[in-house]
């Protein structure tokens, strides 16, 4: 298993960030990435550990219409969540496994550090540049921060 790791600090209190990233994910993601995700449907579970989510992509997203994910880690006590892609999305584009994990740490009352870890395996014919997996995650986090800053003001 290969891994890409990164850290980013956002100007959002940890409890608000956790609520958006973990508790309310299926409602927040389409608002944060409206040009990419049209809907997130909860297929199984209560939104916590073991839950299955279907991310439906907008028609303009090239070569992908959906991504099925399972929450494989969910621990509110340490603000940690991980999602594994089971079908669609990255799995259709050269990856045989793909899991994104987030660990939130309070830096100050209004700032949160996000540790990001992407664990993945590529198919033999797929050329992957290390660090590329983090680019989409950074876009999501940046868009989420902007969305929450508007909401908090």
What structural keywords apply?
153 residues; alpha+beta; Alpha-D-Glucose-1,6-Bisphosphate, Chain A, domain 4; 7-stranded antiparallel sheet; 3 helices; 25% helix; 44% strand; globular
Question: Could you characterize what this model shows?
Answer:
This protein has helices spanning 14-23, 25-32, 132-152, and strands at 2-10, 37-44, 52-57, 66-75, 80-88, 95-108, 111-122. With 153 residues, the chain is an alpha+beta fold. It has a single domain, classed as START domain (Alpha-D-Glucose-1,6-Bisphosphate, Chain A, domain 4, 2-Layer Sandwich), CATH 3.30.530.20. It has a 7-stranded antiparallel sheet with strand order 1-7-6-5-4-3-2. Helix 1 (14-23) crosses helix 2 and helix 2 packs across helix 3 (132-152). The protein starts with a strand and ends with a helix. The model has no long low-confidence stretch (mean pLDDT 92). Belongs to the BetVI family. One of its GO terms (molecular function) is signaling receptor activity. InterPro entries: Bet_v_I/MLP, Bet_v_I_allergen, Plant_def-hormone_signal, START-like_dom_sf.
CATH fold descriptor: Alpha-D-Glucose-1,6-Bisphosphate, Chain A, domain 4
* Helix-residue proportion: 25-40%
Low-confidence region ranges: none
Percentage of residues in strands: 35-45%
InterPro entries: Bet_v_I/MLP (IPR000916), Bet_v_I_allergen (IPR024949), Plant_def-hormone_signal (IPR050279), START-like_dom_sf (IPR023393)
GO biological process, one term: abscisic acid-activated signaling pathway
Family: Belongs to the BetVI family.
Protein name: Bet v I/Major latex protein domain-containing protein
